């Protein structure tokens, strides 16, 4: 009861945070409210949900803080978009890992549970590898021009189809091997998805992957039957989708053109 | 199951609604703030690790806790830095 109430408080904070972040006057307060809601949610989960491994969890959190805060503090203003991409990527990876762990924890599960599990693993993996590629592009560790692999379009379609088939197989016959395979295909799909996106359009791809991670978190909420994860993940998924469209509109481009335009254009950057 | 679906559908509409009137200069901070919020997967990571029975679950869970924490703290700090820049 108290746990659900605390989760409700956190969910409200997240809504107010997004609302605040949409207005120049209250944007900074919005961010603080979001952080406060997160603190409420995390402390509640730790105090009421941890049966054992408490110390290990604290160590992992401490390590995360030790990595995350200096990274966010020291990054140059011009390099912030790729930093956001990295933070988004690790969030997607975390969602996929949570679903994997829960899959191994619950041997006999319902169809709905398995459906939510495969979606979380797939979308989380796509978001992780896609975000890493956007980071590499913006950091200029690889070419910022659209990269078209020979038969890249066919490869992407093949990866997409096989991911759907693997999802179906895993739902019907749930085995760990299939789920790991799905994670691997998801990683490949994320790379294939972002490679053709050109440098100037990369922030829009990041925004879309951000929405993806939100959806992965929402799906993980079904896996764990946790309302807060569903609400917060869905909020980010929905608002991220709208935001992606607004960003594309601000650049006078359509989203389809940004994501798939390179396939039609003539000039092609060399591989790598 | 229907309860969870109801929550999902309502949250979609709230998500659409809250950002529908965002000004262009706030696109990137809003994306970054939303990015920090999906770090709420940390809650899931803590819950799964806190009840992990096997070593595999423990390892996967702890890695998820670490990554989700980076997402949360990095996300909120970097968003604040962006907004600080706007004020000047």
Automatic annotation (TrEMBL), chain B:
<dbReference type="GO" id="GO:0050661">
    <property type="term" value="F:NADP binding"/>
</dbReference>
<keyword id="KW-0521">NADP</keyword>
<feature type="domain" description="NAD(P) transhydrogenase alpha subunit C-terminal">
    <location>
        <begin position="5"/>
        <end position="88"/>
    </location>
</feature>
<keyword id="KW-0520">NAD</keyword>
<comment type="function">
    <text>The transhydrogenation between NADH and NADP is coupled to respiration and ATP hydrolysis and functions as a proton pump across the membrane.</text>
</comment>
<feature type="transmembrane region" description="Helical">
    <location>
        <begin position="30"/>
        <end position="49"/>
    </location>
</feature>
<dbReference type="GO" id="GO:0006740">
    <property type="term" value="P:NADPH regeneration"/>
</dbReference>
<dbReference type="Pfam" id="PF12769">
    <property type="entry name" value="PNTB_4TM"/>
</dbReference>
<dbReference type="InterPro" id="IPR024605">
    <property type="entry name" value="NADP_transhyd_a_C"/>
</dbReference>
<feature type="transmembrane region" description="Helical">
    <location>
        <begin position="56"/>
        <end position="78"/>
    </location>
</feature>
<keyword id="KW-1133">Transmembrane helix</keyword>
<keyword id="KW-0812">Transmembrane</keyword>
<keyword id="KW-1003">Cell membrane</keyword>
<protein>
    <recommendedName>
        <fullName>proton-translocating NAD(P)(+) transhydrogenase</fullName>
        <ecNumber>7.1.1.1</ecNumber>
    </recommendedName>
</protein>
<dbReference type="GO" id="GO:0005886">
    <property type="term" value="C:plasma membrane"/>
</dbReference>
<keyword id="KW-0997">Cell inner membrane</keyword>
<dbReference type="GO" id="GO:0008750">
    <property type="term" value="F:proton-translocating NAD(P)+ transhydrogenase activity"/>
</dbReference>
<keyword id="KW-0472">Membrane</keyword>
<keyword id="KW-1278">Translocase</keyword>
């Amino acid at each position: 009861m108290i746990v659900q109430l605390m989760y409700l408080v956190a969910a409200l904070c997240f809504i107010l945070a997004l609302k605040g972040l949409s207005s120049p006057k209250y944007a900074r307060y919005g961010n603080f409210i979001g952080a406060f809601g997160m603190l409420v949610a995390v402390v509640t989960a730790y105090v009421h949900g941890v049966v054992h491994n408490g110390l290990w969890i604290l160590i992992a959190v401490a390590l995360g803080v030790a990595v995350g805060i200096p990274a966010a503090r020291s990054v140059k203003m011009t390099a912030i978009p790729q930093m956001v991409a990295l933070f988004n990527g690790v969030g997607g990876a975390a969602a996929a890992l949570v679903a994997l762990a829960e899959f191994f924890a619950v041997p006999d599960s319902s169809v709905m549970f398995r459906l939510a599990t495969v979606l979380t693993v797939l979308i989380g993996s796509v978001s992780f590898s896609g975000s890493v590629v956007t980071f590499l592009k913006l950091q200029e560790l690889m070419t910022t021009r659209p990269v078209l692999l020979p038969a890249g379009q066919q490869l992407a379609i093949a990866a997409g189809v096989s991911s759907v088939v693997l999802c179906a197989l895993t739902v019907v016959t749930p085995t760990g091997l299939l789920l790991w395979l799905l994670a691997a295909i998801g990683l490949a799909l994320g790379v294939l998805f972002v490679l053709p996106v050109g440098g100037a359009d990369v922030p829009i791809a990041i925004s879309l992957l951000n929405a993806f991670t939100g959806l992965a978190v929402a799906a993980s909420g079904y896996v764990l039957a946790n309302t807060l994860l569903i609400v917060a993940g869905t909020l980010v998924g929905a608002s991220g989708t709208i935001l992606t469209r607004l960003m594309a509109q601000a650049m006078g481009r359509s989203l389809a053109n940004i994501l798939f335009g390179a396939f039609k254009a003539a000039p092609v950057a060399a591989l790598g | 199951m229907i309860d969870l679906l109801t929550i999902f559908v309502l949250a979609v509409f709230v998500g659409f609604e809250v950002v529908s009137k965002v000004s262009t200069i706030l696109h990137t901070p809003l994306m970054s703030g939303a990015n920090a919020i999906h770090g709420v997967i940390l809650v899931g990571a803590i819950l799964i690790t806190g009840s992990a029975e096997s070593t595999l679950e423990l390892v996967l869970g702890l890695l998820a806790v670490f990554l989700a924490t980076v997402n949360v703290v990095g996300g909120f700090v970097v968003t604040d830095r962006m907004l600080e820049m706007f004020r000047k």
